[in-house]
Design brief:
The protein is of the alpha/beta class and 463 residues long. 49% of the residues lie in helices and 18% in strands.
Amino acid sequence: MSAADPTQRDIFTISRLNSEVRAVLEGSFPLLWVEGEISNLATPRSGHLYFSLKDAHAQVRCALFKGKRQLLRFEPGNGEQVLARARISFYEPRGDFQLIIEHLEPAGAGTAQREFEALKAKLQAEGLFDSARKRELPLFPRRVGIVTSPSGAAIRDVLNVFRRRAPHLQITIYPAQVQGQSAPGELHDALQLALSRAECDVLLLTRGGGSIEDLAAFNDERLARAIAAAHIPVVSAVGHEIDFTISDFVADRRAPTPSAAAELISPDTDALLRSIDKQRQRIIGALRRSLQAERRQLGTLVGRLQRAAPASRLRQQQQRLDSLDLRLARGMRAALARKHKDIDMLSQRLLSHSPARRLLLLQQRFTPLADRLNQAWRRAHERRHARLSANARQLNAVSPLATMQRGFAVLRRADKSVVTHTSQVDVGESVEALLADGRLDLEVTRVSEQSIFKPLDDVQEQD
């Protein structure tokens, strides 16, 4: 039979063709990563997402089904640059080549996450995260240094906790930007300044919550190595409880929030006072129990003496007993006095750290500054007034008005040009003479080119 015979042709239906094309495409490519810009985003009531991914030269249709969409950590939108993990497919009813999206993330966030994981693995391999190298925080710090933005919400939360728990605690803020391109360098420099001044017992590196991009400054390798090399304990409290940065891993302690870091660092003054009072009560109770035991023993001995000893021996024992009683009383008074002294000393130490005293010293220090500022302003005003007077005198010296007041005049033609040579005017032309107190309208009746001033050479020859 001829090849042109229709009964011998393998004729594909459109459905068969599309089905076989889908099988070829889906079997030829594994899961792959694709980067592009979202466009033509559609969100039907089914909960699925349909959109296109495009670059400068091409685009491809994409489908993100509801089950995968619920796992996204962001809401996609038109114009966003994204990184997609997808498998190639073919939609048979329309004959469209498409991608089935398994995972979607912002392109920048994916890059940042990969860089974060790479740096984390590198520093962990070097031992910067080892707990053995991390130091304990001081139980009773006197001064805390805070490396953060002085205008952020985190510093307000931290200071509120410090004021509530430990108002005597001294705070030093080392300001730095906590997000943006300059933030890693500013954080590093502020930390190095705090370490070089060595005036704090513990340092707090903190900021409030934000996106991965907002917290990127705390994933800087240079900053992480500076934290690891610090000779002062460092606490990292960046973002919220679910946020983790490289600074958290390398710091001596990590706190889930700025407020939690403040509670971790500061001793609870009220709890400390309660502990002191509890110890005092325990001491008094122990002394009372000891006194009662001694009295019971004393009563027992007195009874034994009364039953077994002669009168002379009884008197000796009574004298000895009196002596022991006096010694015991003195010892108890001395012990109580020492405990009271310790309690008074601790109370004085707490009062000496009161912020009211420091506030008074600062007020005494800054009061004279207002007078110094007023004096400096008056001196500067006098110098400027003297300079203005001198400039006015110089300006008056070169002013043409002073020359005109001595009898000189300025001639101007009708077009307002100044006459400086006789060749500029003609006989019969009208000119204007400007004097110090007015002007004269003149008519030229004669022009003489002979100068009324003798040349300097002629004067010298005559001499």
